[in-house]
Amino acid sequence: MTAALRAAVIGYGSMGRNHARVLAGLSGVDLVAIVRPSGDPGSAPAPVVGTVSEALAYGIELAVVAAPTSTHLAIGRELADAGVPALIEKPLAGSAAEARELADTFESRGLLGCVGHIERYNPATRALRRRIADGELGDVYSVASRRIGPFPNRISDVGVVLDLATHDLHLTAWLTGQPFAELSARSARPGGREHEDLVTITGRLADGTVTSHLVSWLSPLKERCTVVTGTGGAYVANTLTGELTRHGDGGERTVLETDRQEPLAVELEAFRSAVAGEGSDVVTLAEGARVVAAAEAVLEAARTGRSVAVNDVP
């Protein structure tokens, strides 16, 4: 019987707690350490240590980084230097330059690194991608999304573009198999915070597909909806409920079957399998870096009021 992989979670905020919960019960994984600089909260499912180096002393074989975005580069370097495969929560880094450095660091060592874009593992989006790939929508010509809800008090180091819009930038490129070519945006921060609270984004993919995205953390209404429209109708993926709905040209509406597995469990199972060399669908660091580059284009477009070619971002 193959020994379980020794794992650590770095960062123990709301997302870190969820990662620890799932890893603690995941087959083939032994959660042996949690990094939380402020100390043991008293209910952690594994020993709590204060630094990454202390976690490395447990002989870890994989790590999940759920610490603040501003710390990802330093933590990623330390894990890569120790030869530890890592899943780094999205956004991969706070800038495209740092994201590319992380991707290059892991690649140069021949080491697995991936990004925690959890919406890729939602049952609705997984089913939607399969149907698009099978040609059920015909030629896709638009992708539209709404990602709105109340302000998350856990966030302080980035705005709504890096924290939330990165979900939609990643999903759109992944669902269509097309990278963003050009982006325009308008943002606002009526809350008076340093970073933007609201953004509207319009985009053009490399094949000409048109996209639009409304992202806000100023709404009492919570909505997570992606609509993909093509010559064969439209699909609506609700990632809050995991429901996928097809709307035909004749007005008919059909709710389609999805597997309804917990997205985080699917994501971590994929990461574990990839570390074990079994092959799996993970979001690569290169993909994560492209998402951050697209997010930078959005921020530049909102700042200047002009369209920005994604490749123009330094």
Automatic annotation (TrEMBL):
<protein>
    <submittedName>
        <fullName>Putative dehydrogenase</fullName>
    </submittedName>
</protein>
<feature type="domain" description="Gfo/Idh/MocA-like oxidoreductase N-terminal">
    <location>
        <begin position="5"/>
        <end position="117"/>
    </location>
</feature>
<dbReference type="Pfam" id="PF01408">
    <property type="entry name" value="GFO_IDH_MocA"/>
</dbReference>
<feature type="domain" description="GFO/IDH/MocA-like oxidoreductase">
    <location>
        <begin position="126"/>
        <end position="235"/>
    </location>
</feature>
<dbReference type="Pfam" id="PF22725">
    <property type="entry name" value="GFO_IDH_MocA_C3"/>
</dbReference>
<dbReference type="GO" id="GO:0000166">
    <property type="term" value="F:nucleotide binding"/>
</dbReference>
<dbReference type="InterPro" id="IPR036291">
    <property type="entry name" value="NAD(P)-bd_dom_sf"/>
</dbReference>
<dbReference type="InterPro" id="IPR000683">
    <property type="entry name" value="Gfo/Idh/MocA-like_OxRdtase_N"/>
</dbReference>
<dbReference type="InterPro" id="IPR055170">
    <property type="entry name" value="GFO_IDH_MocA-like_dom"/>
</dbReference>
<dbReference type="InterPro" id="IPR051450">
    <property type="entry name" value="Gfo/Idh/MocA_Oxidoreductases"/>
</dbReference>
